[in-house]
Write a structure and sequence with these properties.
The complex is a heterotrimer of chains A (367), B (314) and C (400).
Chain A lengths: L22 E10 L2 E11 L4 E5 L6 H9 L6 E6 L2 E2 L10 E4 L11 H12 L3 H14 L15 H13 L5 E5 L7 H18 L2 E6 L2 H7 L2 E6 L2 E6 L1 H6 L4 H6 L4 E5 L2 E5 L5 E3 L10 E12 L3 E8 L4 E7 L14 E6 L5 E2 L6 H13 L1
Parallel strand pairs in A: 3-8, 3-9, 6-7, 7-8
Antiparallel strand pairs in A: 1-2, 1-4, 4-5, 9-10, 11-12, 12-18, 13-17, 14-15, 14-17, 15-16
Chain B lengths: L1 H23 L1 H31 L2 E2 L6 E2 L5 H8 L1 H35 L2 H16 L2 H12 L4 H8 L11 H25 L3 H9 L4 H30 L2 H6 L18 H10 L4 H24 L2 H4 L1
Antiparallel strand pairs in B: 1-2
Chain C lengths: L7 H24 L26 E7 L5 H11 L2 E7 L2 H7 L1 H4 L5 E5 H9 L3 E2 L14 H4 L5 E2 L2 E2 L2 E7 L1 E5 L22 E4 L4 H12 L13 H14 L3 E5 L2 H9 L5 E4 L1 H9 L4 E4 L5 E11 L5 H11 L2 H11 L2 E2 L4 H8 L3 H4 L8 H4 E3 L17 H13 L1
Parallel strand pairs in C: 1-2, 1-3, 9-10, 9-11, 13-15
Antiparallel strand pairs in C: 3-13, 4-13, 5-6, 7-13, 7-14, 8-11, 8-12
Helix pairs in contact in C: 1-5, 3-5, 7-8, 9-10, 12-13
The chains are: A alpha+beta (367), B mainly alpha (314), C alpha/beta (400).
């Protein structure tokens, strides 16, 4: 067995005090001309973790990944892989492998040659190489396609080859740059599970870049939300979703309803809102506010209700579509009351509004 | 009012109805569009080539020097049986091959540097440097090489100042090799560059990511993927050398020894024989037959190039 | 034949000129394939002008580039009112093409080279001219009054203009004393230092050499060779081949070769000598004892010339000693007008002798003026080797 099934570890809890973290970034900065792409990032990823860098385009997440891979050199800071400082190590000497967004499969090589390329460079004997390639192929469920050329494969198959090509080298850290971005929704959801399965099987540390919050929530052990080259929040998906540290995180992940009552800004997630019809009474201890349904958006599995509160703010509430189809639409224009449990809201750190801090970073950078 | 309503559409639609009539027969409009260029192509290219082929099977009356439309294979028989023509064809093809290989070897690292290493600014400068010579007269550029290579030229002068023996490669096949390689080099660099430029950076990164040093990545990834570009360039360098007759006239010579590059003494090319047969002896059928040789060689070459994907690289 | 400039034109002309002649000579032969006498040219019965009328105001010429230099065109136009419109041709073939259909009613005259002449004459493109209307005609070297290439059965199809020999060019450093024989071109002592023109007509030069050095072959005319004579000549050229540095196609190439010291001896035109000497290259030329080959140009009148009076006025003008001298020195060729000698001396001392403009009639016996080899020998027998065989033999010699 070429790919050793290490004990899969989940989350930061599994960290061993004796072993250095798989990846450690300290004060990493990178700018292109006047544009600050990565503005001082500190980060630790434990061995075996599925770690996601989530952020909108331009947030610096891909640059950060490229810095880890060695395709770019940081202006400042250090990058450690398994306790070794690799800040100045060229990519071909780093114990990382990358799954590229465009897969970057070598079009002139067969699937097997693509997968075996890294092993060939390392001088692995042919017999062992072939065995490991076959193992990797069956791991990504492409057994039998080894003689194909990349252009004879579907998008999903190419994606799997790219993954196999990286994984077969058993890197310290596997870097994935939006690997599912080019796939259609259904395939993407399939591959999300597939990736997670493979990661758990091989136990390799994954650093996964995506702009898709659902993907991040689905797959990650921990995730970092990035904006403007900085990390806004790091934590397990539940924590990031349920207790966003900043308004940006709240807004970027899921639909966020931000309210301010008595000088306190807080988030209440749409699925936590109960929409009460006339005559319905809230459970005790719930906060209740009334408003008018301005718009009803049917999204298949559920329906979104955009409600204008009497106090002026707009909230989104979500309901499972358990009623007969079309029933939801009759709510449009109706007066409703929204109720929630105060414990399900999360108070925002209002002193650290994201936009302001980022702006001040830019200003200092330019001066 | 009623009259106007009825009359207007008909009156107005002279052009409009023609358009919709054509629209319903789209093949016709595309035929109309394609006829002039296609007709031109057929007339100029195919017809002349066909005529050439036909002429090759005629002969001239040596007494009247008039073309006689008598079908025979004498011209081809002469070409095959007379060792002189075998030598000439061999020399032409061999030099075209040597020049092509030389240009490929020079163009590859140059194009690589241009496409994948140099900054935008340097890239532009190099582009200008590659293309600029094409603006100068071909003859003038050959002459400048004569001035470099001849007996009292820059090369021998430089060797002399280094106390080295003179090279004396002016008017030899070595001189032809150098001059051909020089004048056709841009035609090799540009397609090679284009093929390399087209390679996504991620392929190189992927190779490095998988542990390949730069040269290894170039060998494993850039070389095979840029090969169609090199082959495309070789179509130019090979065919241009194959068809040339000016350079042999200007820089060729009768030397033997290594300066003849093993191509026999003399520098006569297929083109020179064709030229003298057309221009001097008026033996157009023989010239046509001889022309069929490079045509046939290039046909085979292009078929080979197609297999290597050169046309996708163009 | 002469050279106008260092360029492809020279070489182009040199080669194509010969081709034109083949066609011309053999075309006439084709009407009587078994006989040696040709049918008279189509225009033989056209009566030439007997007086020159007033100029028509225009004159359309096909000429070698520079044959209508402003230095003699301007005074001509001023004197006659004939405005000269010149179309420069790059080769004899082009001239013949342009002159088709008697100049197609567009062109008046062509400055044809001796090898194109017969083609023009037998093609009916040019018409007889009256030399009595050219006052300087009487001052011409006798040979050029009626050379075989422009005069048939006593009818003049043009008025001779200039001529030139093919000379032996040598480095005076290598040869302090002028070589007296073409033998230097066949001498292994000069291996790698020799250049000769890349032209099948060069076979005639070898034949000319054999004519006097190997009398047993019985060569009487270097353009009329029987098979054994031809074989011997080719054998000589094949011996010469390894001694050759380069077969030159362009006058400029030969100039380069001598300038850089690549070669020390070669066959050339006076043009090369003059250019090299002007550039202070230590060279000189000579006509060896065996004699030399040569060429001659003629102004010919188009059959359908629209401005015949201006044409005659022009011919009159270019035949005058002064214009003859100017043109000769301009191009490195020799006037046909004997009186041009004095004018040449005035323009450039010693040039008259240098160009053999003062040559005695016997001199022209040593010049074998170009004509194109045909199968029919002068004696009417058909044992001679025709030009196409010269062509292929030359390829075998130079390319092998």
């Amino acid at each position: 067995m070429a790919i050793h099934s290490r004990e899969a570890r989940h989350g930061a809890s599994a960290k061993s005090a004796l072993r250095p973290p798989a990846l450690r970034l300290e004060g990493v900065r990178k700018s292109y001309g006047h544009v600050l792409a990565v503005a001082g990032v500190d980060l630790t990823v434990q061995e075996g973790e599925f770690f996601t860098l989530l952020g909108p385009s331009g947030s610096g997440k891909t640059t950060l990944l490229r810095l880890i891979a060695g395709f770019e050199r940081p202006d400042a800071g250090t990058i450690e892989l398994a306790g070794r400082d690799v800040t100045s190590t060229p990519p071909h000497l780093r114990q990382t492998n990358t799954v590229f967004q465009d897969y970057a499969l070598f079009p002139h090589m067969t699937v097997a040659d693509n997968i075996g390329y890294g092993l060939r460079i390392k001088g692995i004997p042919k017999a062992e190489r072939e065995e490991r390639v076959q193992t990797a192929l069956s791991m990504v469920r492409l057994a039998g396609l080894d003689k194909r050329k990349p252009n004879q494969l579907s998008g999903g198959q190419r994606q799997r080859v790219a993954l196999a090509r990286a994984v077969v080298n058993e890197p310290e850290v596997l870097l994935l740059d939006e690997p599912l971005g080019a796939l259609d929704l259904k395939l993407r959801q399939e591959m999300q599970l597939e990736l997670k399965r493979i990661q758990q099987k091989v136990g390799i540390t994954f650093v996964y870049v995506t702009h898709d919050q659902e993907e991040a929530l689905t797959m990650s052990d921990r995730m970092a939300v990035m904006a403007d080259g900085k990390i806004e929040q790091i934590g397990p998906p539940v924590e990031v979703y349920e207790r966003p540290a900043t308004e940006f995180v709240a807004g970027f992940i899921g639909i966020s309803n931000v309210l301010e009552r008595n000088g306190i800004r807080f988030v209440v997630r749409p699925e936590k809102l109960h929409m009460l019809e006339e005559g319905q009474e809230p459970r005790s201890g719930m906060t209740v506010e009334s408003g008018i349904v301005e718009q009803v958006v049917y999204v298949g599995m559920s329906t979104r209700y955009i409600v204008r509160l009497d106090r002026g703010e707009q909230l989104v509430a979500v309901r499972q579509n358990m009623d007969a189809p079309g029933q939801a639409l009759r709510y449009e224009g109706r007066r409703v009351r929204l109720a929630w449990v105060p414990g399900h809201t999360y108070v925002l750190d209002h002193q650290r509004a994201r936009g302001e801090s980022a702006l001040s970073e830019h200003d200092t950078e330019e001066r | 009012m009623a009259v106007e309503a009825a009359g207007r559409p008909r009156k107005k639609s002279g052009a409009a109805s023609l358009q919709s009539w054509l629209w319903r027969r789209r093949w016709l409009s595309s035929a109309l569009l394609l006829t002039p260029p296609l007709g031109w192509f057929l007339l100029i290219y195919i017809a002349s080539l066909a005529l050439l082929l036909v002429t090759a099977f005629w002969q001239i009356n040596f007494f009247t020097t008039q073309i006689e439309q008598v079908w025979n294979l004498d011209n081809f028989r002469t070409i095959v049986s007379d060792p002189t023509y075998r030598i000439i064809i061999g020399r032409t093809v061999a030099l075209a091959a040597v020049v092509t290989i030389t240009d490929a070897v020079i163009a590859f690292p140059f194009a690589y540097y241009m496409a994948r290493v140099a900054s935008r600014r340097i890239q532009t400068l190099l582009f200008a440097a590659v293309l600029l010579p094409l603006w100068a007269s071909y003859i003038a550029r050959i002459y400048s090489w004569i001035l470099i290579l001849n007996h009292s030229g820059v090369l021998n002068w430089s060797l002399q100042s280094l106390n080295l023996p003179p090279a004396d490669i002016g008017y030899t096949n070595v001189a032809m090799w150098i001059v051909f390689s020089y004048i056709w080099l841009p035609f090799m660099i540009i397609p090679t560059y284009a093929a390399m430029e087209r390679l996504p950076e991620s392929l190189m990164e992927a190779a490095a990511d998988l542990g390949a040093r730069r040269w290894r990545a170039v060998r494993d990834v850039v070389l095979p993927l840029a090969l169609p570009g090199v082959v495309a360039g070789s179509i130019f360098t090979f065919s241009l050398t194959l068809g040339d007759y000016i350079t042999p006239i200007l820089v060729g010579g009768e030397s033997s020894g290594w300066r003849s590059l093993g191509l026999g003494t003399g520098s006569t090319f297929i083109g020179n024989v064709v030229y003298s047969n057309v221009g001097i002896a008026n033996n157009v059928p023989f010239a046509a037959a001889l022309t069929m040789i490079p045509v046939a060689i290039m046909t085979l070459y292009l078929l080979g190039a197609k297999r290597l994907g050169a046309f996708e690289a163009l | 034949m002469k050279t106008t400039a260092v360029g492809s034109g020279d070489w182009f002309r040199l080669s194509t000129a010969a081709a034109a002649a083949v066609i011309a000579l053999t075309a006439c032969g084709s009407t009587t394939p078994t006989g040696s006498t040709a049918a008279p040219p189509p225009t033989a019965n056209m009566t030439p002008l007997t007086t020159i009328g007033p100029g028509e105001g225009q004159l359309n010429l096909i000429a070698w580039e520079g044959y209508t230099d402003t230095s003699w065109v301007k005074p001509f136009t001023a004197a006659t009112g004939c405005k000269v419109n010149a179309h420069y041709a790059g080769s004899s073939a082009e001239m013949v093409t342009l002159m088709a259909n008697g100049g197609s009613g567009q062109y008046d005259m062509v400055s044809a080279s001796g090898d194109a002449d017969l083609r023009l004459i037998y093609g009916g493109d040019v018409r007889p001219m009256n030399p009595n209307l050219i006052p300087n005609f009487v001052n011409f070297q006798d040979y050029f009054k009626a050379p075989a290439y422009n005069t048939i059965n006593g009818i003049h199809y043009g008025i001779s203009l200039q001529w030139g020999p093919n000379v032996l060019l040598y480095s005076t450093k290598k040869f302090p004393i002028a070589p007296t024989s073409w033998g230097v071109l066949y001498d292994p002592a000069n291996s790698g230092l020799i250049t000769v023109p890349d032209n099948p007509i060069q076979i005639a030069d070898a034949a000319l050499y054999l004519m006097s050095t190997k009398k047993s072959l019985g060569i009487t005319d270097p353009y009329e060779l029987t098979q054994p004579q031809f074989d011997a000549t080719i054998a000589l050229l094949k011996q010469q081949k390894p001694l050759i540095k380069k077969y030159w196609d362009l006058a400029g190439t030969e100039i380069q070769l001598f300038t850089s010291g690549e070669v020390t001896v070669g066959a050339a035109w006076p043009y090369q000598t003059n250019t090299l000497q002007a550039a202070r290259v230590a060279v000189a030329d000579t006509i060896p004892t065996e004699g030399a080959t040569g060429w001659g140009d003629t102004w010919m009148l188009a059959t359908n010339a629209p401005h015949p009076n201006c044409a005659y006025l022009w011919t009159k003008w270019v035949s005058t000693p002064q214009v003859q001298a100017e043109q000769a020195l301009f191009f490195g060729e020799t006037p046909v007008n004997k009186l041009a000698c004095a004018a040449m001396e005035k323009l450039q001392p010693h040039s008259c002798a240098q160009y053999h403009a003062d040559a005695l009639g016997s001199y022209f016996n040593s010049i074998k003026f170009w004509k194109t080899p045909i199968a029919t020998c002068d004696d009417g027998s058909k044992n001679c080797i025709d030009y196409s065989q010269w062509q292929s033999a030359w390829t075998t010699v130079t390319a092998g």
